[in-house]
Amino acid sequence: MASPKSASAENAATLLRRSLERDRLGHAYLFLGEEMPSLEDAALGLARALNCETPASRSPGGLGLDPCHACSSCRRVSGRLHPDVVWVHPTRKMRQIGVDQMREIIHSMSLKPMEARHKVGIIAGADRMNESAANAFLKTLEEPPKRSVLILLSTEPHRLLDTILSRCLRLNFGTGSAELDVGVTHWLAEFSTATATAGEGLMPRYRLLGSLLTSLAARKEQIEKSLESSSPMSRYPDADSDQKERWEVELSAGVEAEYRRSRGEYLGAVQWWLRDILLSTLPAGDQFLRFPQWAHNTQTVAARLNSERAGRNLEVWERTQRLLHTNVQEALALEVGLLRLQL
Ligand SMILES: [Zn+2]
């Protein structure tokens, strides 16, 4: 049986190949995974395919699909010697990517390819860009030069600025997010339908909030019941009061931790869906949907937005989740977050 890791990486590689087959080449990719070397291999694979002189097959529009690994281009890409495939790495000393490094690659990407069909810029450890480096890079990411492809590699995507995250097509080459909980998936399906069919105004938005809060409350009750029944308190009713108090503290800490994890799943699922909406506003995006099963809802919402507004939604929701890690009042944070979304 294939390990989950190879299944996920295969899945990402298949998605990428399928998009090339259809001549849909994104301008900026974010390759995610647990190990940088395998992400670098994946980036090299794409760079080889795009620039191979004698690929075994091509898309209708001429994109190379199966690089030969033997031609001069393939060999130089593999050896990291190709003048049109440029790399940025974090410096050894500071483990950071600074603004000068980014300026260099931005300049290099702005020049026409010397010999290749596509200029490829690979930013290994993109999450190590410091803030000024990331800001210098945003414009290139928004308006990339023609015939260029940027590939950002990250093992810690939570460190990337929202503005960068939202401008890349993400492909997960790691073990990645496990399958979503069935209850969460079911809830999100209803949520997406309710959003797609909701009218304008505040009332529909408060109904969405209500649906989220109700599901979270039900989940919390479930967690309380399940942890209470396994707590020693129920088995030792005669224990002394000190002991009982300790068990109670343990129990409530356990409930809180489990509830936060579960809430993270719900909010993370919404985040995935908002990303699907953003993808649906982009020309080559809809093939990467995380939830193709309700693409209709996703496209309905996407049709009401543009990519800028859809990208802002991701920023709003990421901020909401970060806020919940602080001691902010939950219902209030969710209300503010949901009302700020443009759906
Ligand atoms: Zn080749």
Verbal overview:
There is one protein chain. The protein is α/β, with parallel strands linked by helices. It has two domains: 4-172, 3-Layer(aba) Sandwich (Rossmann fold); 182-340, no CATH class. The chain has 13 helices and five strands. The protein has helices spanning 4-21, 36-51, 72-78, 99-110, 131-142, 162-165, 182-197, 202-230, 232-235, 241-281, 295-303, 307-324, 330-340, and strands spanning 28-32, 85-88, 119-124, 148-154, 169-172. The protein has a five-stranded parallel β-sheet with strand order 2-3-4-1-5, with helices on both faces. α2 (36-51) packs antiparallel against α3 (72-78), α7 runs antiparallel to α8 (202-230) and α8 (202-230) runs antiparallel to α10. The longest helix has 41 residues, at 241-281. The chain is elongated and about 80 Å long. It starts with a helix and ends with a helix. The model is unreliable at 1-6 (pLDDT under 50). The protein binds zinc ion (ZN).
Describe the protein's topology.
Elements (H helix, E strand, L loop, with lengths): L3 H18 L6 E5 L3 H16 L20 H7 L6 E4 L10 H12 L8 E6 L6 H12 L5 E7 L7 H4 L3 E4 L9 H16 L4 H29 L1 H4 L5 H41 L13 H9 L3 H18 L5 H11 L3
Parallel strand pairs: 1-4, 1-5, 2-3, 3-4
Helix pairs in contact: 2-3, 4-5, 7-8, 7-10, 7-11, 8-10, 8-13, 10-11, 10-12, 12-13
The structure holds zinc ion.
Zinc ion (ZN) binds next to helix 3.
Features:
343 residues; alpha/beta; Rossmann fold; 8% strand; disordered N terminus; binds zinc ion
